[in-house]
Design a protein that fits this description.
Layout (H helix, E strand, L loop, with lengths): L3 E4 L2 H12 L4 E3 L6 E5 L3 H11 L8 E3 L3 H7 L4 H10 L4 E6 L16 E5 L4 H10 L3 E2 L14 H8 L5 E4 L10 E4 L6 E4 L5 H8 L4 E2 L5 H4 L13 E3 L10 E4 L10 E4 L6 H17 L4 E4 L8 H12 L4
Parallel strand pairs: 1-8, 2-8, 4-6, 5-9, 10-11, 12-15, 13-14, 13-15
Antiparallel strand pairs: 2-3, 3-7, 4-7, 5-6, 9-10
Helix pairs in contact: 1-5, 2-9
The protein binds adenosine monophosphate and magnesium ion.
The site of adenosine monophosphate (AMP) has 16 residues, from strand 6 and strand 10.
């Protein structure tokens, strides 16, 4: 049944909802482009999205929700953010907001950032799927990394077909262009990515010109690119084969546990999906242990290992 294109009718959407709840990936149409969706609260399911897309880095993903009521459990909406949702949700507007204290979405969705991107799709298929799954859906565009976004079920099948348990066919997408991404983390909204919702429409609601990404502070502009953004306070030592008892250890695979300040194995069985799902929480826990140094044992550079190593390298980069 891998990669099977099925009609997006009530029966198949119910089946897809069950699959999402069991951790599988389902591709579905939205009004913008096709998305590759997973239960956003399931770290391993989210890791499989990165694996399927073949992304060399953990870029943050957009979380799809039914409405603001569900979104406010995940993110903190300022009065300005609420105004934008009132004007444009459901629709092709993604809002980047601070993660809420009640956020149950995997750290991996945010790629370790303290923010989360949320949108409410205006298309009957993802809306019905959200109702059936009863989970927020993490869903980037359903294409291999670096390829163009898919606007039909056939494009999805050709590009990443064997990675999705099911492809819900809702015909070609109407807008064909990604959602507009606006950050409402600071007081003034910032346009992070132009898209289907026009800048003019947004400016009409905020009552003035929106700050462009290039004009905003670097902490907002390119979450994946900042070398030291994910750096823990402790020094991170890469490719460690040994460690001092006062160091914390971030292990992977068949590493025997010897005395250490703190010790976490990302996956004793050497499963990169499991490792990716636990990476950010593990870094945070080891940093909070108070150790001055974290020794990270080698992670193979294949598959998801490329993105894991990328993130570890960033965490080890000297602070500015
Ligand atoms: P895609 O994966 O193709 O759906 O694109 C998602 C877009 O949303 C990318 O441009 C991401 O950089 C952006 N994005 C998602 N989450 C965040 C976040 N927490 N902070 C900033 N940008 C985000
Ligand atoms: Mg994309």
């Amino acid at each position: 049944m891998q990669g099977r294109i099925v009609p997006a009718n009530a029966e198949w959407i119910a089946e897809a909802g069950q699959m999402i709840r069991s951790g599988a990936l389902v591709a579905f149409p939205t009004e913008t482009v096709y998305g590759l969706g997973a239960d956003a609260t399931n770290g391993e399911a989210v890791a499989r999205i990165f694996e399927a897309k073949g992304r060399p880095t953990f870029n943050p993903l957009i979380v799809h929700v039914l409405e603001l009521e569900q979104a406010v459990i995940i993110g903190t909406f300022s009065p300005m953010a609420r105004r934008l949702t009132e004007a444009f949700w459901p629709g092709p507007l993604t809002l980047v907001v601070p993660r809420a204290a009640t956020c149950d979405v995997s750290d991996l969705v945010s790629a370790g950032l303290p923010t989360v991107a949320l949108r409410s799709p205006n298309h009957p298929v993802p809306r019905a799927l959200l109702s059936e799954a009863r989970r927020p859906l993490a869903a980037p565009s359903a294409n291999r990394s670096g390829h163009v976004s898919a606007t039909s079920a056939e494009h999805v099948a050709a590009d990443i077909g064997n990675k999705a348990a099911l492809i819900l066919d809702g015909g070609p997408t109407t807008l064909g262009l990604e959602s507009t991404v606006v950050s409402v983390v600071d007081e003034a909204p910032v346009l992070l990515r132009p898209g289907s919702l026009t800048v003019e429409a947004i400016e009409g609601v905020i009552g003035g010109r929106i700050v462009r990404r290039e004009e905003a502070g670097t902490h907002l502009t390119s979450p994946g690119q900042l070398a030291s953004h994910y750096a823990p306070r402790a020094r991170l030592r890469l490719n460690a084969h040994d460690w001092e008892p006062e160091e914390a250890v971030l292990a992977f695979g068949a590493v025997s546990e010897r005395p250490a300040h703190a010790f976490i194995n990302l996956s004793t069985s050497g499963d990169l999906v499991e490792a990716a799902a636990h990476l950010f929480a593990a870094l945070r826990t080891l940093d909070a242990s108070g150790a001055k140094s974290i020794a990270a044992t080698p992670v193979p550079p294949t598959g998801l290992g490329e993105a894991i190593n990328d993130r570890l390298k960033r965490a080890a980069a000297p602070r500015s």
